[in-house]
Design goal:
Blueprint: H1 2-22, E1 25-34, E2 45-48, E3 54-56, E4 62-68, E5 72-78, E6 85-90, E7 96-100, H2 119-123, H3 133-137, H4 144-150
Parallel strand pairs: 1-7
Antiparallel strand pairs: 1-4, 2-3, 2-5, 5-6
Length: 151
């Protein structure tokens, strides 16, 4: 009985080791460049679709990461100002050279506003008046600063 138990334990541990050996990792790597200029895109995001597994490209536009061995994987490549791209890779996984297309948003108009008055002053209970040079000249007081006190 003891021999049978030892044999069963040995076979069980052998099967566990073979399961660990089959859970291999594969490397996904490639390069992301601009479609027009062919310049590398630094810090482009390359992720396996539906997961958080991936990497960002380096200064040469190259990415590299490992995943569990699979027959097919979909990569989602994103970069600010460019169209997102999905690439389906099948085994064996080769080095991927891909380009991203520049994405331009056309708007009707752009409104830029600025103020030298801090938000804290605007939010407080103060009154802000706007006067022009003509109003300053026609002020009843003899001096500019005295004219401000009348407002």
């Amino acid at each position: 009985m003891d021999v049978l138990f030892r044999t069963a334990c040995f076979l069980f541990s052998l099967s566990c080791c073979s399961m660990v050996a089959t859970a291999q990792k594969v490397t996904i790597s490639g390069k992301v460049t601009d479609e027009l200029s062919k310049e590398p895109l630094i810090a482009a995001s390359v992720l396996v679709k539906g997961t958080a597994i991936g990497a960002a490209t380096d200064v040469d536009g190259v990415f590299k990461f490992e995943i569990d061995d699979t027959s097919e994987v979909t990569l989602v490549i994103t970069y600010v100002g460019y169209e997102d791209k999905e690439i389906v890779l099948k085994r064996p996984f080769q080095f991927v050279n891909t380009t991203l297309k520049n994405f331009v948003i056309q708007g009707d108009q752009v409104v830029v506003t600025g103020s030298r008055v801090s938000e804290a002053i605007i939010e407080s209970g103060t009154t802000i008046d706007k006067i022009d040079a003509k109003a300053i000249k026609t002020a009843p007081s003899g001096n500019f600063y005295a004219g401000l006190s009348v407002l």
